[in-house]
Design goal:
- With about 525 residues, this protein is of the alpha/beta class.
- It folds into three domains: about 230 residues, Rossmann fold (3-Layer(aba) Sandwich); about 70 residues, Luciferase, Domain 3 (Luciferase, domain 3, Roll), CATH 2.30.38; about 100 residues, GMP Synthetase, Chain A, domain 3 (2-Layer Sandwich).
- It is about 30% helix and about 25% strand.
- A hairpin with a 2-residue loop joins β23 and β24.
- α1 crosses α2, α2 packs across α3 and α7 crosses α8.
- The longest helix is centred in the first third of the chain and has 17 residues.
- The two termini are about 40 Å apart.
- The relative contact order is 0.09.
């Protein structure tokens, strides 16, 4: 098998577009040259195989230059959510041990609040930042990293930890040269490329989500390995999305269910105005899709909508074709790796039809960076590992997810870890106790709600609710903060202080499909 890299396509079709965004086109030759020179610049500044780098920027073609530079340098690269507050970004920067930061002028407010004393390499990818070297100047005249020195890197993206702090999902660096077809990134790319009709170099992939998320980043880079064009947007808009599909003759795209909902809310006559006939394969992930929404999308776009279930940890996955889904509605497919449903209390494996914790056997090795206890907590005595989701297998081996992983809120396909907001709100003088949960939302699937027990002398009501939301937003990114606050005399806790969030959630989810998230 030949290497799977953008370099191969830069040699074969140098003028073919690799990235399209807002009128800007980057060819494969340009992507290959720019990323190779940036890789050389990073090596010249002391980053060698296994080094750590953070990417903090909005969606932009240079984001993929930087990601490919890290990938071909054998680095571990961490893409940071561009909506985080400085303290949140600082935690990730410190925890991952990065010695290099590539940021953009759009992140100036966040960057200004960071302590970069332990980050000697600072490059500004777009615009200017005080104390940062301009990326374009850094690569001017810089020789590319020599091919013999290239090796595969890996993304190290941040998920949740037991304390509410995010944890880096650390995967093994592949051995061998850059583009090794047996390395995990290449294997993942081939798996993506095999969906339905397969991915060909002339295909066009639309990625309407932020690249700091795992699926958009990995999918976009996999498409480059296969020679396809990647279309980026700065933010999702349903009309713009349909217009881009028509304009660029998009063949492949990836969405989260909330995006389906927003497109379906457009007037029918407006939806039917666009020519979407170029679409061959659409994939959705990030959250289970409500059955009614999936049916409407299949009626509109036809049997081209595929679904997969996985996690950043990559310990197991499942996928389902549109044809399979129509006979198993609500399923996320047959697991590609050995899957077991385990009783949460006894630890015994359950038969088909019974709900329990979803475990996988096999999968790729990983650890939670700097947290061996968290790593151990997701593995049982048989070596099976879990993402913490609740589900069941049917008699045909199809997996259905029936509940959330512990306490996590998924709003618009984005994981929100409520303990971060709980920790902030607990510090307010008017709060005696607080729980943050996800409640039904017709567009986002789930909305963040705080349920607060007021402190003695405090009065729960609209004024306090507004104050608490503002208090939280002063410390955390707004998407992590409650959109509404309810007040209660007490929260459902046992004598040991354990909060029964499931009981609390049930008050809000009665009459709603628990899979609508």
């Amino acid at each position: 098998m030949e290497p799977l890299t953008p370099h191969v396509h830069a040699q074969r079709t140098p003028d073919a577009p690799a990235v399209l965004m807002s009128g800007t086109s980057v060819t494969f030759a340009e992507l290959d040259d720019r990323s190779a020179r940036l890789a050389g610049a990073l090596r010249a500044r002391g980053l060698s195989r296994g080094g750590r780098i953070v990417l903090l920027m909005e969606n932009h073609p240079v984001f993929l230059d930087a990601a490919w530079a890290a990938q071909r340098s054998g680095l571990r690269y961490t893409a940071v959510n561009s909506h985080l507050h400085p303290a949140e970004a600082q935690y990730i920067l410190d925890d991952c041990g990065a010695t290099a930061l590539i940021a953009s002028e759009a992140m100036a407010k966040v960057v200004a609040g960071l302590d970069l004393s332990r980050v000697p390499v600072r490059l500004c990818a777009v615009g200017n930042l005080p104390g940062f070297e301009r990326l374009d100047e850094a690569v001017t005249g810089q020789p590319p990293l020599p091919e013999p020195e290239e090796s595969e890197g890996r993304e190290m993206l941040y998920s949740s930890g037991t304390t509410g702090r995010p944890k880096g999902v650390r995967k093994e660096l592949p051995d061998g040269p850059f583009g090794d077809p047996t390395a995990a990134p290449a294997v993942i790319a081939r798996g993506i490329g095999m969906q339905a009709e397969g991915v060909r170099p002339a295909d066009v992939f639309l990625s309407p989500a932020p690249l700091y998320h795992a699926a958009p980043l990995v999918y976009s880079m996999s498409m480059h390995r296969l020679g396809a064009t990647v279309v980026l947007v700065d933010r999702f808009d349903p009309r713009d999305c349909l217009e881009l599909i028509e304009r660029h003759r998009v063949t492949h795209a990836q969405f989260v269910p909330t995006m389906f909902v927003r497109m379906l809310r457009l007037p029918r006559e407006e939806r039917e105005r666009y020519d979407l006939s170029s679409l061959k394969v659409v994939v959705h992930t990030g959250a289970p899709c409500p059955v009614a929404v999936k049916r409407q999308m299949l009626d509109w776009w036809g049997p081209i909508i595929h679904e997969y279930y996985s996690g950043t940890e990559d310990i197991g996955n499942s996928a389902i074709t549109p044809q399979e889904w129509l006979t198993h509605p609500g399923s996320v497919g047959r697991p590609a790796t050995e899957c077991h449903i385990v009783d949460e209390r006894s630890g015994e494996e359950l038969p088909p039809g019974r709900e329990g914790v979803v475990y996988f056997a096999g999968g790729r090795p990983f650890t939670y960076h700097n947290d061996p206890a968290k790593t151990e907590s997701v593995t049982d005595h048989r070596g099976w590992r879990t993402l913490g989701d609740i589900g069941r297998l049917d008699e045909d081996g199809y997996l259905y997810l029936t509940d959330r992983r512990a306490h996590v809120i998924i709003s618009g396909g984005v994981n929100i870890y409520p303990q971060e907001a709980e920790n902030v709100l607990a510090g307010h003088r008017a709060v005696a106790d607080v729980a943050v949960i996800g409640v039904p939302d017709p567009e986002m699937g789930e909305a963040v709600k705080a349920v607060v027990q007021p402190a003695e002398g405090a009065v729960g009501g609209p004024e306090l609710a507004v104050e608490l939301i503002a208090y939280c937003r002063a410390e955390l990114a707004s998407y992590k903060c409650p959109r509404s606050v309810d007040f209660t005399d007490d929260l459902p806790r046992d004598p040991n202080g354990k909060l029964y969030k499931r009981r609390l959630r049930e008050r809000y989810w009665q009459g709603h499909d628990s899979r609508v998230i």
